[in-house]
Amino acid sequence: MNFVSLSAYLDPMWLATTVHHQPVRPVPTISTAGPNPKVVYPCLPKPKPFRFGPVGVRLRLNKYKVLAEKKQLAELGTQNSDSKKLDVGEEKVVEEEEVEGLDLGWLAAFPHVFIASMSNFLFGYHIGVMNGPIVSIARELGFEGNSILEGLVVSIFIVGAFLGSLCCGTIVDKLGCRRTFQIATIPLILGALISAQAHSLDEVTFGRFLVGLGIGVDTVLVPIYISEIAPTKYRGSLGTLCQIGTCLGIISSLFLGIPSENDPHWWRTMLYIASVPGFVLALGMQFAVGRLDNAKEVIKNVWGASEVEKAIEEFQSVIKNDGSDLDSSWFELLKEPNSRVAFIGGALFVLQQFAGINGVLYFSSLTFKDVGITSSALASLLIGVTNFAGALCALYLIDKQGRQKLLIGSYLGMALSMFLVVYAISFPLDEQLSHNLSILGTVMYIFTFAIGAGPVTGLIIPELSSNRSRGKIMGFSFSAHWVCNFLVGLFFLDLVEKLGVAPVYGTFGGVSLLTAIFANYFIVETKGRSLEEIEMSLTSDFRARDK
């Protein structure tokens, strides 16, 4: 080593922080020759990396974590543990910084998740957009008083959603998330515009069907997209934005529907407005998938530089395990572990629908009228606000309590709420007390649904699915969802008229209780685990079982 100069005596604290300029203890330093000279302190140990910000707030650097440090995957933890240790001298210190006491690791991914959640906003908007104006639409288009045709206009978009969900898995495997999002906006925009200018039953029905196609694709795509782009630590919270977007869409449609009581043509304006989020979604998609170099850049920008090598290694391990071709066929859903995940996904959505959530949402005004609230706008608004409040609670709880606990607690709360309504309606109580208990039970039902059954169901299925079959499994699960959704929407009103509210709500409570038991035995906790880790863990479990 050639020594070319002897520098001043400097304080090591000054060297570490670049704040204090007064020497405290003389320490000799030397500089090395070469194109990139280094300052060397032969008498001092290397200081731990830390510094102070411009306002005196201490910033801390996240410690480098090897793949298996917190993940219980022994085969990965021992494979490259030595090569993953941090070397300060080689400047492999993690660059991601966060202010102490203020965790902002989710912030980089939030804009992407927000744009994707516009699809859920549209879903919620189209759920509620027909709640009030359907009477005006029926009167203007000539099918007033025909409950079957009214129910068809309300529910026809679910038929389109079924077909969209069924096709989404294949489309996203071929084109990727961004292109699929943009393609799905075409029927969303056209359907809203056709419905808005409709002058016949056929036109409004066709427009609603086109909207359903786009909704079906997006409801499958959004959970996949968020689960893949969100950092592992925040995947649950960011995934809850789907439910929040749906709630905001419902509330927005209810507020915008208020003038329809006095303006019989206001429904056209509401449907024109529905095309605007579609344009925003089409222009906002900027995340490209499928190329390794781009993936590295995206992970660095969205997850932080510390996660790049770890994420790429996990992804390559999955490719090595599954094969380089990530396209899959529907027949792979018949093989383990895909068949088990597909069964869990389909069962969760079927049970969710027969637990009654969309029956309550679609016909909330009729339900509340039976228990004393005659204003349909007030009843629907109460449900929307309650749903939104529950989703906000889920945003905080889902990454702290875990998916399984929220799912079980949510369905137990829904069962208790439904049984409370049945008790209030069926037993001889004071009329005012009966109404109050019924309202309380209904509000509790919506709130507990929004805490777990709503956000967790759509989130946990892509978490459990393999990279290779994720699109197909989600498409199958949501197809089951839309079939049951359509059946509930079509027959709920007739069942209430023939049997009454109490027997129908009692059935909803029984299904909710059954779903809580199902979640306890079949759901695997995915909190804090990367998608690749979950996939490799499930695959290794089934291979070990086969042996």
Structure in words:
The chain has a three-stranded antiparallel sheet with strand order 1-2-3, with no helix packed on it. A three-stranded antiparallel sheet has the order 4-5-6, with no helix packed on it. It is mainly α. The chain folds into three domains: 1-49, no CATH class; 106-289, Growth Hormone, Chain: A; 331-528, Growth Hormone, Chain: A (Up-down Bundle), CATH 1.20.1250. Residues 1-27, 39-100, 288-293 and 317-324 have low confidence and may be disordered. It has helices spanning 12-17, 74-77, 110-116, 118-128, 134-141, 147-175, 177-196, 201-229, 235-239, 241-256, 266-273, 276-284, 292-302, 308-322, 338-354, 357-362, 364-370, 376-401, 403-426, 431-464, 470-499, 501-522, 531-546; strands at 3-6, 30-32, 39-40, 51-52, 58-61, 97-99. Helix 17 (364-370) packs across helix 18 (376-401). The chain starts with a strand and ends with a helix. The chain is globular and about 55 Å long. Keywords: Membrane, Transmembrane, Transmembrane helix, Transport.
